[in-house]
Amino acid sequence: MKKIFFKLLVLTIVLVFSSNVLKAEGGDKKVEYLYLIKLKDKSLNYVRKDRPETYLTPKALDRRAKFNILIDSFDYPVSKSYIESIRTKGLKILYPTRWLNGIVVSTDDHDKARSCLMLFYVDKVYYLGKQNVSTKKSENSAVRSEENSEYHTGNNIQLQEDLKTAYANSYDQINMLNGIELHKNGYTGKGISIAVFDAGFYGVDKNPIFKNIGEQVIKTWDFVSSEQNVYDDDSHGAHVLSCIAASKENSMIGSAPDAMFYLFRTESSQHEYLYEEIHWIRAAEVADSLGVDLINSSLGYTYFDDRSMNHSWKDLGGNTWISLGAQIAASKGMLIVNAAGNEGTGKWKYINPPADVPEVLAVGAVQLDGSHVSFSSYGHPSLLGIKPDICAPGYAVSTASSTGKITHGNGTSYASPIVCGLAACLLQGNPGAMPKDIIEAVVNSADRRLNPDSAYGYGVPDFIIANAMLSNVPVSGFKNITTGSKVTSKNKAVLYVPDGEQYKVVFYSPGKFLLFNTKRDKVKVSGLILQNGHGIVDIPSQFDNTRVIGAKAIVLKEKGKVRVKELLKRQ
């Protein structure tokens, strides 16, 4: 009897212990572990590398042709033979990632994944974290190819004379960036596609703040749960989307109310693990395949639930998976806009990946009076170049709840989509512009471009100035002033402005600063000339009536000269 009692006692202890473990890992739900199986090569995939139409979609090929982007190894698919071989190990295949040349799998047994290291074609096996088991269907059914993405007819927003009434709650945050002027000129994002990566878009499909959301959302996918529905999870993405897509007059109008949208859930609001970075990369691969123009990502990664996964400041500058993925995404012709992060007053303090690389337009937060918000992440001293790139409203920002009620939130998460939407408007107005051209124009339209720092970046952009630099044609509020002045062999010239003042201009090489002096008063005037042949000129306040805000120039690289063609001046 004593032996039987002892065995029962031991069994009871084991059962209690097992129950506690299950509760610690998510109550009574079963836990699965995610791994990245990194492959050595892309052999045995049996694709014709000289026939990219066999492994890239028409839209992906069109973008590569438009921007003269070469097909490279990142475009080649992961070997199907390797995928099927991994499947035989008892692992559930979640998806392949061609940019990392790997396979993301889930399992309830760590050893099954680790045993793949014995395979000749496997390079490394990375543990990505754990999550509750999902019984959702395979991802491939939803994102295997692009769908017909016909442009919708638009929201037909009637901009009233009293714009403050029409835009209502969103007026100040868009007007601060001169975005309403873009809308008045007909640029509302129509025909431009934006992929929004976030933690969920709760209630968006029924939200009255969006007039035509059923037509505008082209595709959705939940990379966390492997299902199509993104409307039943976290609401963060819904608030973010409202900053771009809201289209209800007298309540709220977003920064690109007529754009098309791809809504991808890549983030779990319950956990923070490395697999979220890989979900982000996979979503970017799908966005590339679908021909998406811009990506808005109000996400960033530094610390994780598993401390061994934590990033350090040494990882900044492109040494993380997600930043590598963002760089590749940009190289494929997509414009990436990312929140700088809200770590300014925290332990981390600095900008979050993937906003840390030059290819990503990183957006910090300011208040509506232009002052820096303390929580907005700073650029790390080790980073090449200035970060964040720019700042936008990120304090008391108007967003919409799932019922369409206007709420207010703080964070660079909201600064980023406001900028992303206006960047889409720029692309609509300048369809031939490359992403780097858009970024350059936005950055060089900002109010601190001549004195950037790690808090504001280059400052708050003016999207009308950015559009003037990109379009080369007069827009509302501007007129062209032609000048016949030529730059001599010493790179000097005289420009004539409307009131008759003469300005002596000293040009340095493109991308460098200019120096201006009035011939009579010898007042220094600052500016810079860009690689695309445009320049920006700032004239001191005593000469406000001759304030020149843009200059078009031709760079004669073979002769080392610059010819000034025209100036753009606010009327």
If you had to describe this structure to a student in words, what would you say it looks like?
The chain has 571 residues and is α/β, with parallel strands linked by helices. The protein has 3 domains: 113 residues, no CATH class; 309 residues, 3-Layer(aba) Sandwich (Rossmann fold), CATH 3.40.50; 93 residues. The strands form 5 sheets. The protein has an 8-stranded antiparallel sheet, with helices on one face. A hairpin with a 5-residue loop joins strand 17 and strand 18. Helix 11 runs parallel beside helix 12, helix 13 packs parallel to helix 15 and helix 14 packs across helix 15. The termini are far apart.
List its traits.
single chain; 571 residues; alpha/beta; Rossmann fold; 8-stranded antiparallel sheet; 7-stranded parallel sheet; 25% helix; globular; disordered N terminus
